């Protein structure tokens, strides 16, 4: 068998479980246990690395020969390992080091080489500093502060919508929300300005919980209205809290059983998608404490967001200094994005509106557990991640659909390059442009290798904010899209914090996921979320394709989503096949386009066109035949 098809684990069964059709019941198959070597560390560095691997992967007993990616590692977790090494050993390694040496034993060698020879300066430590009267914004915050003034109300809101079932203590919930806001200063920071220069001002206030009675029929409209709240960033909290109590639950009052929907609305300037997990964790802990009549007892956060904003500027340095990190990384992006296409040719139904359309709609996208597992197998066999593998498939699809062989795809990364930021709520995410070369009709494996090299270089140079790259390179602007790209890919593969509120069933509303919500920020956004079962086996990938409805019809978006699935299925079925060899048309599409549309059978068996029309008029004389504005003609009137 090829390497990618060799099983990594075996399970012995007395017999295979069958379903009622006599076929193998895949859902009844027991999942293989994660197997680790357990080989003990031999040096202090290996011991530290074993601890870091265990911490970030949540897999006990990791030995020095266990592969980081085979145990579930990805690029985000790689950043956490590197941050841990920086903190524990004052060593600066690049992302590439973990991909090239993914075991504890191999990475320990890289660490020792770095300690002996020095592979670049260690970053300045991120520590809590004395508060200044006017703290600067981070680069990302400053750019968002500018564009928010031109956006539609609610255009940059991030909602968290949770359905709560059971005995709810409203007073405890409101107190817990206040606890969380007090813990994370970004949730109570306003941004006043003077002469066009904003600064951070932390308010001594927490959001009130607005309780609204409604029913299931009116719930959707009420929630949507809440999520579109227009924040005044200059003076008010960037967070609002709503509790929708379904009227069928009974009379109002604390502690009543029933259904509620909690809606927390944040402005993006205060939070990003990766912040929702620590926020939910802290909310659950605070609610549990408040129901006991206590204040939450949690570990103090090592830094505040204002500390990060100052540290970011110190880290990057002066753009005028050729040796600064800002200059070095901007230089990389200047070369990496030289000659990037101004605009991809996409299978749109309409031209781009002159002013750029922002109306967004979405269609569902689903990868089965089987496809999910096979994508992981191909990724791990080629020292890549699931994201890289999906990106390769998407680039191949876009190229086949007419986008050319130079395919830039945008993606968001967490931007949490220091371990002090792991549990902090704030806006750290940034955007990377991943430029994929599909020229020469490569095989999927060749394309995946290209994607891997491009992505590793991009991850290494992710410190300079996207906004600074845009300012420095000044690319051609395309209305309705970010600079450099018109297609985005997002893959959420960090598990949600499932800590629910005690005594309640807490279920996030999928209709308000980060992907597919609100205005279209580009032509096509593929937003995917990876799921794993309780035993850590692949459970499928769910998501949406959000599309700019001013350019694409729903049917076109559905076709693009279906073709991505077919491309990925072909990729895992034969990774050695070339991109051009994949059949993108479904059988029904092939029949329609090659047979139905190409049919040459005469539809008029006898008579001429005038005679056929007269027969139709006789058969239905009053049928509405012509419509133009308010004018309507029946068949008889048209024939008069």
TrEMBL record:
GO biological process, one term: lipid biosynthetic process
UniProt keyword DNA damage, yes or no: no
GO cellular component: cytoplasm
Keyword vocabulary terms for this entry: Phosphopantetheine, Phosphoprotein
Record-linked InterPro entries: ACP-like_sf, AMP-bd_C_sf, CAT-like_dom_sf, Condensation_dom, PKS_PP-bd, PP-bd_ACP, Ppantetheine_attach_site
Keyword Phosphoprotein belongs to the record: yes
Segments for region (Disordered): 345-365
Name of the featured protein: Phosphopantetheine attachment site
């Amino acid at each position: 068998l090829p390497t990618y098809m060799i099983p990594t684990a075996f399970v012995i069964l007395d017999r295979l479980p069958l379903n009622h059709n006599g076929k193998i019941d895949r859902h009844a198959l027991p999942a293989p246990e994660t197997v680790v070597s357990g080989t003990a560390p031999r040096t202090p560095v290996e011991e530290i690395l074993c601890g870091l691997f265990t911490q970030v992967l949540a897999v006990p007993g990791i030995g020095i020969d266990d592969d980081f990616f085979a145990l579930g590692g990805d690029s985000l977790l790689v950043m956490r390992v590197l941050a841990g090494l920086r903190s524990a050993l004052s060593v600066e390694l690049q992302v590439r080091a973990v991909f090239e040496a993914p075991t504890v034993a191999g990475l320990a060698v890289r660490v020792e080489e770095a300690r002996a020879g020095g592979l670049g300066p260690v970053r300045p430590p991120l520590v809590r500093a004395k508060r200044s009267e006017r703290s600067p914004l981070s680069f990302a915050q400053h750019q968002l502060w500018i564009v928010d003034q031109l956006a539609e109300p609610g255009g940059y809101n991030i909602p968290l919508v949770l359905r709560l079932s059971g005995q709810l203590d409203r007073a405890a919930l409101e107190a817990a929300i206040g606890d969380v806001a007090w813990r994370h200063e970004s949730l109570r920071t306003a941004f006043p300005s003077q002469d066009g220069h904003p600064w951070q001002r932390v308010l001594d206030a927490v959001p009130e919980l607005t309780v609204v009675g409604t029913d299931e029929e009116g719930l959707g409209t009420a929630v949507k209205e809440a999520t579109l709240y227009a924040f005044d960033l200059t003076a008010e909290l960037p967070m609002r809290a709503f509790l929708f109590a379904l009227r069928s639950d009974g009379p109002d009052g604390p502690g009543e059983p029933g259904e509620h929907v909690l809606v927390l609305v944040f402005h993006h300037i205060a939070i990003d998608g990766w912040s929702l997990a620590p926020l939910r964790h802290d909310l659950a802990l605070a609610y549990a404490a408040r129901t006991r009549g206590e204040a939450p007892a949690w570990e103090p956060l090592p830094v505040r967001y204002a500390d990060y904003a100052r540290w970011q500027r110190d880290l990057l340095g002066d753009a005028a200094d050729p040796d600064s990190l800002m200059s070095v990384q901007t230089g990389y992006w200047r070369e990496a994005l030289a000659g990037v296409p101004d605009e991809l040719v996409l299978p749109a139904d309409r031209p781009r509106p002159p002013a750029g359309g922002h109306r967004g709609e979405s269609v569902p996208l689903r990868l089965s557990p089987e496809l999910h597992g096979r994508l992981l197998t191909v990724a791990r066999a080629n020292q890549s991640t699931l994201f890289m593998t999906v990106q390769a498939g998407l680039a191949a699809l876009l190229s086949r659909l007419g986008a050319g062989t130079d395919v830039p795809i945008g993606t968001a990364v967490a931007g949490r390059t220091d371990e002090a930021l792991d549990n902090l709520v704030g806006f750290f995410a940034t955007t990377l442009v991943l430029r994929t070369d599909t020229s020469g009709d490569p095989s999927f494996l060749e394309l995946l290798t290209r994607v891997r090299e491009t992505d590793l270089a991009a991850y290494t140079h992710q410190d300079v904010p996207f906004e600074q790259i845009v300012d420095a390179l000044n690319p051609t602007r395309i209305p309705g899209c970010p600079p450099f790209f018109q297609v985005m890919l997002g893959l959420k593969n960090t598990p949600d914090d499932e800590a629910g509120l005690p005594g309640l069933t807490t279920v996030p509303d999928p209709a308000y996921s980060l992907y597919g919500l609100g205005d279209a920020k580009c032509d096509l956004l593929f937003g995917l979320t990876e799921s794993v079962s309780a035993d850590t086996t692949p459970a499928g990938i769910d998501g949406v394709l959000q599309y700019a409805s001013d350019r694409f019809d729903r049917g076109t978006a559905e076709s693009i989503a279906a073709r991505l699935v077919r491309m990925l299925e072909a990729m895992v079925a034969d990774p050695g096949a070339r991109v051009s060899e994949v059949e993108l048309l479904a059988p029904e599409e092939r029949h329609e386009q090659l047979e139905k549309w190409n049919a040459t059978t005469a539809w008029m068996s006898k008579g001429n066109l005038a005679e056929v029309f007269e027969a139709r008029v006789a058969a239905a004389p009053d049928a509405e035949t012509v419509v133009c504005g308010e004018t309507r003609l029946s068949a008889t009137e048209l024939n008069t």
